[in-house]
Amino acid sequence: MESVNRFILILFSILVVFNVSRLLIGLTLANWHQLRHLNRQRRKLPRSLPTMSVIIPAYNEEKYIQRAVKSVLRQTGVQFEVIVVDDGSTDHTGILLDKMGQRYPQLVVLHQNNQGKSRAINHGLAKATGELVMVLDADSYLGEQALMTMSQHFVDPQVIGMSANVRITRPLNWIEWVQKIEYLLGYRLKGSEESLGLEYIIGGVGSTFRRQAMQKVGGYDTDSVTEDIDFTLKLITAFGNRGWRFGYANDVMAYTPPVQTFIELIRQRLRWKYGRFKALVKYRQLIFSTTGQYTKTLSWWKLPKVYGEELMMLLEPVLILWIIGIAIAYLDPTTIISILVLYTVFALATFIPEDLSPFERLQLLLVAPLTYFILYVINVVDWICLIRCLRKWRAIVRNQDQTARWEHVQR
């Protein structure tokens, strides 16, 4: 038993050191990424920025659709059009959109039979005229100057796709606060992924691409439940990420409502994880690729590491319980305290420089010592989703579920 305890401690220590290194490197590179964007903003920009088409696919979104559209119509500093595709909604979404279409000349409203989110985006893409295309979820909305700021990133001709900085809006209960903190911490590290050539998910809320590149690959595939992950990997496969940049615009703000209950969060994350597994299997040629199109950090580190992280997540409950048992048996809480301190420092380093209201920053600073426990809620959700995905591994490998359907959660 003593040797087993020693082995578990050594393994856990290695994981802790790995996570500490990852967080420190991630924060350092994220800060450098942010400073680089600030320096880019100070440079003299061209007189005309790339024109934009904002595509909003919608299905039964009468609660949020007007807010989403108006957040785009309020944008200034760049020429744009708004294309909303009503995918056969059975509520008042279509009626509300038709009324808005009569009031706003920049708004194009398209209707189609219910065919799924990917086909709705492709329908909008076929009508788009902008040099850039932003995809905005119908339940989300853009911050001020989001379009102009995003278009500035594409002044660099090597940029092919950029994700926005997505934040959770007005959390009311504990599970919504968990998501708010998760998004803040997760997106803080996203800048480091661009710096290292690791970015492979240009998320759906505010994701922006060059229209010609989108059309060249035939738009979004319709055999995925997570169209954004699938499409990013499709573009990377076609163009490579060594000469082209897939990045993260930390200064482009987009907002999305949180999931309201623990059960609904499981539903949402199950779709994300299942879809990511499907996409990774579908584009498995990227892993350990030697073609020279892709960065080694993506092909030989990031993508293989996804599988390694899922394996460690599978074993994590056993490791955690074992470490707690050892700490109690030997009255030595050093390891546990070190982890709590690490995540507290990580949270403080994220919350302090973020652009938040004073009251919001104070709230987050007060809960910073609970960061590890807060994030562990997400770990529990991910673990449950992983188990469910493993039960469906045959469908994932054989790509059996080929419907890019809508998956609405309670908000």
UniProtKB/TrEMBL annotation:
Gene3D superfamilies reported for this sequence: Spore Coat Polysaccharide Biosynthesis Protein SpsA, Chain A (3.90.550.10)
Keywords for the protein's UniProt record, in alphabetical order: Glycosyltransferase, Membrane, Transferase, Transmembrane, Transmembrane helix
Cited CDD domains: CESA_like
GO molecular-function terms, A-Z: glycosyltransferase activity
TM stretches of this protein: 6-32, 311-330, 336-352, 364-384
Domain Glycosyltransferase 2-like: 53-217
The family this protein is said to belong to: Belongs to the glycosyltransferase 2 family.
Name of the featured protein: Phage-related glycosyl transferase, group 2
